[in-house]
């Protein structure tokens, strides 16, 4: 076989070395990650940002070329995940499907969810439905990745085929596996949301900012995922760069909370802020009321909290035991029943959550219930609860 043919099979037309191929692979996989997080996720699924038609269509083309994912299907499956989070209907909940399955078989779960056409119809509204979407990107969804394979071989030879294989595995592993799996299983939480979403790291730059998954579940429609001073969201940096040259328009970001001093009773501004930041309110309750009470309970008994109450049960107190086994839930209930003060604080938290999450109440009715809750908290004689009530009454939203 001529040397030129061998050279072509090995390195294609461009004859890139391994370091050049690595650089190419990092660039194209990160463009794919940005396509998923900026366009499919933040723009299409949650309407947090709009992109200039040229940028939006580039993202559509790149998604077709490198993933074969259809915009409407991706958005529908993700919206259903939020609507049915941590239930049997959640397309990829580690709580129900197992962390190993979600981590390694996330792509299979995505393909299975695509077959549920009723859910695609229900949750996929508002996505692109023009001629090219119907006749190319949807009808010939797999053509893009086939063309990419051919182009990779022609340009880079066998190295290009290897790079193509890695590209095909990139989103299934990092997005469908790591974010949907580990992002509901391990990490830290800024907000006590009603699901298990976690932030994998405060410096989110490898998976486009998606690592800040707990922040996203607290404020799903926010185009910005970094919500603490020490957090960084590379996806938001990209959005701001595009916005600076008028190629993006931010539609929604998480509201900023203000604490007004010396508010005698909750008012309509309080209710408005609580509805927008209810997870922040429950997080404040956990950190400013419940955890100090648990530490005091341990100190009274001359023990450390982790020795008095195992970590699993401490987490059960935080989330009302939602994810505990029946045996662990019974153990936690017995532990709480033996401590009337802790039991009272948990009951106060449940009542507050009911005020914030209940549906069917108008603003005036919700305000009355909140005022009644604050009055009971202040009459409890528990200093931390009284201080929390005073802080809660001052909740307000900062101007956007």
Overview of this structure, please?
With 400 residues, this protein is mainly alpha-helical. It has 2 domains: 3-250, no CATH class; 258-397, no CATH class. The protein is 64% helix and 4% strand. The strands form 3 sheets. Strands 1-4 form a two-stranded antiparallel sheet. A two-stranded parallel sheet has the order 2-3. Strands 5-6 form a two-stranded antiparallel sheet. α11 (213-218) links the parallel β2 and β3 (232-233). It starts with a helix and ends with a strand.
Could you give a short description of this structure?
With 400 residues, the protein is mainly alpha-helical.
Secondary-structure blueprint:
Blueprint: H1 3-11, H2 18-45, E1 49-51, H3 53-66, H4 71-83, H5 94-97, H6 99-114, H7 117-123, H8 131-138, H9 143-156, H10 158-181, E2 203-204, H11 213-218, E3 232-233, H12 234-244, E4 248-250, E5 257-259, H13 268-276, H14 278-300, H15 305-308, H16 311-318, H17 326-337, H18 340-357, H19 363-378, H20 383-393, E6 395-397
